[in-house]
Amino acid sequence: MNRILVLILSLFVLDSCSSGKAALKKGDYYDAVMEAVQRLRESPDHKKARAVLQQGYPMAIQYIDNNIQNQITADAPDKWRNAVKGYQQINYLSDQIKTSPGALKVIPNPTTRYKELADAKGKAADESYNDGINYLMKNTRDDAKTAYFDFKESNDLVPGFRESIEMMNQAEFVATLRVAYELINNSNYNYTMEPVINSLRRQFLSFKPIAQKDTVPPHQNLRLIFNGYRQDNVASVTSYVETPSRDVKVGEKKGADGKTQDVMQNVTARVTIYRKTKRGYSNANLTITDASSGATLANQAVEGQSVWQWEWATYSGDQRALTSTHQNLIGRRDMNPNDQDLFNQALNNLSQNLRGNLQGFYSKY
User: Fold this and answer.
1) Which residues pair with 302 in a beta bridge?
2) Comparing 273 with 6, which gets the higher pLDDT?
């Protein structure tokens, strides 16, 4: 068992080193170095990993540095944010090498860019902040979402950078779709659709009861009307017949060659299978209108059904012909449904269907 484990680990290390060499050949210097460092963490004297690290590390640092400088020279719109990512990669490689004794033997003084990273973070924060301003000025919900994440990135890079928090809040306000909702129960049943509304709440999507007066007008009005629940007065019963048959051994006899042979007989049975069914039905209406124009954006009837079924059977004929399924059904007796379970299932399905319809509608916002 130990030999198998050692073989598996050896194959894993060999495969990883091969992938590291392949990454190096393709110019994926960063990935090649990371794989080599990991291999040396597991096997500090691994020759191939040492070779990949020794060759690939200087190339990885040079590639990242060149990419940063090229973007700065070309005045790329996100040059400083990319510089931050590049310097973070260099520092991360350094941390990984320092925590891998085998790798540290190959690269005893890994390169760091902490000073450059600090400087780039300030410039990247300004870069993100200015992008946020530009997007927010476009005055659309989608652009305001982009602006929000730009301001958030600015604050993440340099906490409290300028008015990034205030601007982030402003962008979130502009990006948020505000919906005033009304829940109406037109029945005598105790059922609330509030959990459906709560399941829709997320960033950039606000739901408030229409009765809750707000200084900010809504963009949309949502009305959910629960019309009620009904169920079949009595369960319906249907039946159908199956006629299983099989050959069974009834004895033995000697053949002409003197060998013992089984004596088989075909046996049959007549199985009557009964199926009792009872259904429950619930329904609601969903309406969404534009708060400014009054235009109807969605108008749907939504249903929730429940089904209870029970099967049992009787038989005549030879019991030996019965399958295990038949025997199980014959062992059952007639049963009646639990009406409360039917009600709960129908209302739960209605809630799921309402939630699915509303999530589909609001997925574009």
Assistant:
1) 284
2) 273
